[in-house]
C-alpha cells in the first residue's frame, strides 16, 4: 500500500513540474506588450488548467515557482514585481480552481440536454 502512495506522489510531483515548465515557457515566449508598462503573459491560463486538474494548492505552488523563475531570468524589476505577480496569479488561479473544486457543474445545467 505504501508503494502505491509513493507512485501517486511521484506522478503528482512530475505533473506539477511539467505544469511549471509549460507555464514558464508560455510566460517567456508569449509576452505581448499592451501599453507602456503592461505586458500580457499567458502563463495564468496554464496555471488555472493545472489548478482545475490537480487542485487549488497546485495553482499556488505553480504561481510561486514560475514567478520566482521569471524574476531570476527574464524580469528586471525585482522582488516587488515577483510578490505582485504571485498575488495576482494566485488571486485568479486559486479562486477559479477552488470554485471549480467545490462546484464542478452549474446548477440548472442538465448534462443530457439536447444540443450539448
List the SSEs and their pairings:
Elements: H1 2-29, E1 32-33, E2 39-40, H2 43-54, H3 56-73, H4 79-102
Antiparallel strand pairs: 1-2
Features:
116 residues, mainly alpha, 4 helices, globular
Descriptive overview:
71% of the residues lie in helices and 3% in strands. The protein is mostly helical and 116 residues long. Strands 1-2 form a two-stranded antiparallel ribbon. The protein is globular, with a radius of gyration of 17 Å.
Mean pLDDT: 85
Major sheet details: 2 strands, antiparallel
Element pattern in H and E? HEEHHH
Span of the ends, CA to CA: 41 Å
General shape: globular
- Lateral strand order in the biggest sheet: 1-2
Strand content: under 5%
Residues in helix, %: over 70%
What structural class should be given to the helix and strand makeup?
mainly alpha
The Rg value, from CA coordinates, equals 17 Å
Q: What ranges have pLDDT less than 50 throughout 5 or more consecutive residues?
A: none
Number of helices: 4
How many strands appear in the DSSP assignment? 2
Gist of the model:
The protein is mainly α. 71% of the residues lie in helices and 3% in strands. The longest helix has 28 residues, at 2-29.
Amino acid at each position: 500500500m505504501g508503494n502505491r502512495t509513493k507512485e501517486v506522489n511521484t506522478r503528482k510531483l512530475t505533473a506539477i513540474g511539467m505544469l511549471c515548465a509549460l507555464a514558464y515557457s508560455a510566460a517567456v515566449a508569449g509576452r505581448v506588450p499592451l501599453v507602456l508598462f503592461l505586458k500580457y503573459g499567458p502563463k495564468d491560463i496554464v496555471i488555472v488548467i493545472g489548478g482545475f486538474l490537480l487542485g487549488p494548492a497546485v495553482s499556488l505552488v505553480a504561481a510561486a515557482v514560475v514567478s520566482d523563475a521569471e524574476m531570476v531570468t527574464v524580469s528586471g524589476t525585482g522582488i516587488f514585481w515577483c510578490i505582485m505577480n504571485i498575488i495576482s496569479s494566485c488571486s485568479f488561479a486559486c479562486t477559479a480552481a477552488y470554485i471549480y473544486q467545490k462546484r464542478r457543474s452549474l446548477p440548472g445545467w442538465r448534462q443530457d440536454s439536447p444540443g450539448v
